[in-house]
Amino acid sequence: MSAAEPAAAPGDAQAPPAAAAEPPHGVLVGVDLAGIQRFIYEGRRLLDAIGRATLVADLTDTAGRHVAPLLAEVPQEHRAVLRDAGGALYVDFTDPDRAAEHARAFTGRYTRRLRDISDRLTPVTAHVPYGGPGRPADRAEALRLLPPALQSARALPAPGHLPAQGLGVTASCDITGRPAELLDHTRDRGPVRERTARDIVTARMRARQWHDANSRDWLRGIAPPAGAQRLELPTDVDHLGREIGDVSRLAVVHLDFNGLGDLLKAHHARLQESGADVSAGMRSVSADIARLTEGLARALIRSVAGAIDTDDRTGEPAIHGYGAGGRLRPRTVRGTAYVPVRPVVVAGDDLTVICDARLAWSATRFALDWLDADPASLDPRDPRAAMARRADTPPWTRRPGSSGRTTGVPSAGVGIAVQPVGAPLSVGYDICASLCEEAKDYRKSAAHRLDDHVVAWSHDFDDPARVVARLREDGGAPAPGEPGRTALPMTGTAFHAFLRDYLDPRTPGSLRGDELSEQRSWLLSRLAPLLQDGRDAAPELERRGDLGMPVKLPEPFARDLLLDALALLDLHLDVPLADRPAPAQGPEGAARP
């Protein structure tokens, strides 16, 4: 699921002089996979999405079975991998006499292999020769020109990857509606087999391999609760967010780092100015970011798994918290308790997680706190340590919150989309990705937000453009100086304060405090409509007082924050998640995700 395991940067141990590191001339090949999200979320099943995300990672894994044989055709001294993560692959071919030939052969074989796996992924390729008259002077300059070249190539799709109309087939894929090519024998459901496209079966087999190799490693050292024999990550959406007689909603949560493209450009320029090995420096920081993303996914899984306890009344596994009934019962089958959170995409700076909707806000709060950890407290082996150590190195310096300390870990944008269990994951992903972009635009609109995280969410399951349009409309004030119907997007600081002041029963005056916790019906049936319509709530509060039921709302009064909190009153389960680092690796080793 994650991007290829980051290789050590060539210049990490003892960097040679920059002039010696740069070959005199060569051809830089860039491959970018377009349509990744469409490919991953085409089906409705969690296992399909996991398998497809893993296939995308495999296609840029230079040690894997797809890319390694192609690279092996070129002598090692005449090639260098500069990037292999997040659906992108940069390879430099440096043979003095055959660099162009090697570049063409690699590109042709790679795109053919990609086509054999699935026609839903579109390879975007660009070649940038360097050295010699009329060309970039060296590899560093070619590396700077490669992203614009790939962007231009996106506008010119290859005919072989355009949709083919009018195929003469009589059977359609039960999952995607595309032409069926196989009967899926991997899902034994009696005599009737699913008719599927070939890449569906390939993805399912790859997902099972990934799950068997890595699921237990991510949960290593966390004991199952009393009443269960083992913990496992779910492979079915029905194991997430579905509880008989209770809430049946899941959340798709998308997180990526703010302004990472600009940060990498500034880092590239700084390396050039200092005379350092640009390609080694860029590969090193990309590897650090990939480790950070993977570490966050692992930490999130372990924190939720560690929160699974035992319900005193039933003896069954449960996650206890404040609000939303006070507990969540994970799916338990034959002694296996399924952890109700599952990363789907862990690649580069992208992290997409599917979880029980009741956990989404606690999980987001944990993720932001985990990223903002004090660099001085981190073990050198911690996946945050490498980026955190860049705290004093521009452009990575960031000052989170009011702590006064600095870190090199970038801030994050987060989008949360709530959807019914069983609805297409592709829609939920598109919504949360759009919300994430809206939050990031909000961050850039004011200088004081640039070092902070940003969060936006929605309960609407609709076209992403309409969801964002409603968010903007609700954020608009009915009159100058008055709040709108939502305070979203929020900065990370405001998000923490919102959960604490409005939904934590330990905070005096919160909606879950001693006084208002017994007023749920009135809050949702009478007060919320008043606030939605923009009417003054004072007469209603006075009426309640006359009936001998005084109600003191959280102060200072803020209509937008109050409405956001009321919408979460029955959904958000406030769980105190804690970081649970994995124990030291045993001698037998374990596969990495």
Automatic annotation (TrEMBL):
Superkingdom in the source lineage: Bacteria
Chain residue ranges for the region called Disordered: 1-21, 381-411
Basic and acidic residues bias locations: 381-392
Name of the protein: Uncharacterized protein
